[in-house]
Specification:
- The chain folds into two domains: about 1-55; about 60-105, no CATH class.
- The protein is an all-alpha fold.
- The longest helix has 28 residues, at about 5-35.
- Helices cover about 70% and strands about 0% of the residues.
- The protein has helices spanning about 5-35, 35-50, 60-65, 70-85, 90-100.
Length: about 100
């Protein structure tokens, strides 16, 4: 949620709640139709296997990059965010000065 802008953040929070509720209803319906506990356990566990590899597609958190002092990667991420948002341009020197405290001294 930290990458999402302030305007769509409320909508995204609602969507997360909607998907959680829909998933809860689907689990209940699945348990009604699937009578074997082994099949039920398999069907409810298989979607989690997809999430094991999801980390390959998600970027690191900007806050985590900052806390780990990975300033170059953070600068590239901020440049990408500015490009996607279309809010002007981000000068590389300004970006480095903003994220790298050693350059501010």
């Amino acid at each position: 949620m930290e990458i999402i802008g302030s305007k769509p953040r409320a909508l995204m929070s609602v969507l997360v709640a909607v998907y959680y509720t829909a998933g809860s209803v689907m689990v209940g319906a699945l348990s009604y139709f699937v009578r074997s506990w082994r099949v039920y356990a398999l069907l409810t566990s298989l979607p989690m296997l997809l999430l094991l590899f999801a980390f390959l597609w998600f970027p690191e958190s900007p806050r985590w990059l900052l806390s780990e002092k990975r300033y170059t990667e953070l600068a590239h991420m901020l440049e990408d965010i500015v490009e996607v948002n279309g809010n002007g341009s981000l000068d590389e020197e300004d970006c480095q000065t903003t994220v790298d405290p050693e350059k501010n001294q």
